[in-house]
Amino acid sequence: MLPFSEACERNKQPILDVLVDHLAEARCVLEIGSGTGQHAEYFAPLLSHLTWQPTDVVGNLPAIAARVEAASFGNLLAPLELDVASEPWPIASVDAVFSANSLHIMSWAHVQHFFRGAGRVLKSGGLLCVYGPFMYDGKHTSHSNAAFDVSLRHRDPMSGIRDFSDLQKQASAQYLQFVVDHQMPANNRLLVWKQA
Amino acid sequence: MSKRIIVFTILFLTTQTVFAGLFKCTDDDGAVTFSDVPCASGAEEVKGIFASDTGSKNDDFAIENCVNFLNRNGQISDPEGVKVQSHEYEWVTVKNIGARRMLRLMVNVRNQYGAYDGPEPMQCLMMGDGRTVNSHSFELVK
Predict the structure, then answer these.
(1) Given A17, A25, A182, which is nearest B136 (Cβ)?
(2) Mean pLDDT in residue range A122-145
(3) What is the CATH number of the domain that holds A147?
(4) B49 within 8 A of B63, measured Cβ to Cβ
C-alpha cells in the first residue's frame, strides 16, 4: 500500500484553487519534496497545459514512482532525486517551483539552499509557490501552529515553522520579488514570489 | 479565438463626469455606508481608497487590492489621491484557468496639478478567491 497523507487529501483542492491562477502560463513545474506524491497525482491531470516534475530525497522516491506509474498521466514525470543541499539540481530551468509543508521540516541551512536553488532554476518571471504554516513577526498565527512548532523542534531542534520575514530575506537575496500571501485553510499560507 | 491581453490594462475613455465628493458615514452601531451627501451625524470625507456603497467586506478588500496593484504598476500616479467612484464585476474566461471575475473600477485620480480629471475605467482580473488580483499575464478566451 502506498504512503498516504490525510493532510494532503484535505489541502490538495484549496492549493489547486490558488495554483491554477498562478500557473496558467507555466509549462514546467518543479515540485520539491513531493512526499507521498498525492499533490502531483492530483494536480497534474487538472493542470494539463503543463508538465509536473516531482522530486524528493532518495528514500521517498519509490513510493512517488509507484504512484506516478499507476496514475500514468502524460504530463506527470517520473520523480527525480533532489536534495536541496546537493548541487547541481537535476533540472536546469523551470517556469515554477512548488513545495508544500517542506520548509518547517528542513534545517535552516537547507532552507537557504532551497531558496538559492529555486532562484537558480527559475526562469525570469518564474514563480516560487510555497505552502505551509508560517510565523509573522515572530508570532504564530494560531495556537495549533505554536503547538506544532514545539513538537517539530522537540523532534529536531534544527526544524521548525519559519518566519515570513526570514524567508523574504532569503528570497530577496535571490532576486525573487514577493507577489502575494494567500490565506489558506487550517492556518496555512501559500506564499508566492516571482523571479525578476 | 482568443485575445492576449496584459494585466493592468487600462481603458481611457473620454467620459468627463464631474466627480462629486463622497462621504463615509458610520452610524451608532458601527455600520459604514458611503454617500455623495454628508450624513446626518457628521461625516468623514473619503480621500483615499474606499468601496462603493454596495461593497461587502470582500469587495472592499478586492478594490483595495486592485488599486494597490494598479499603483504598484504605475497606473495610478498619486495613491493618496485615488477615489473609486464605482465598481462592477464581469465574468470572463481565462485560458488554463476557467471562469474568473474581472473587477472594473471607475477611478478618479488626482493629477500632478492636484486636480481630479474625472473617472477613468481600470480593471483587474481576480483570482479564484475573488479577492486577490491576478498579477500575472493571462489570456482571455472568447
Answers:
(1) A25
(2) 96
(3) 3.40.50.150
(4) yes
Asked if the structure places residue A1 within a domain, the reply is no
For the whole model, what pTM was predicted?
0.79
Split into its structural domains, chain A has a count of: 1
| Residues of chain A found within 8 Å of residue B95, distances taken between Cβ atoms | 24
ipTM: 0.81
Q: List, as ranges, residues 1-40 from A with C-beta within 8 Å of B.
A: 17-18, 20-25
> Can you give the residue range of the structural domain that contains A68?
6-195
Alpha helices for chain A (secondary structure H): 6-22, 38-46, 61-71, 108-121, 143-155, 164-173
Q: What is the pLDDT of residues B42-64, one digit of tens each?
A: 555 543 333 333 346 678 889 99
DSSP for A79-113, please give it. PEE--TTSSS-S---EEEEEEES-GGGS-HHHHHH
Mutate: best of B92, B132, B140, B141, partner A, most A CBs <10 A: B132
- When mean pLDDT is compared across A25-29, A51-55, A135-139, B138-142, the lowest value belongs to B138-142
Tell me which chain B residues have a C-beta less than 8 angstroms from the C-beta of A20: 96-98, 128
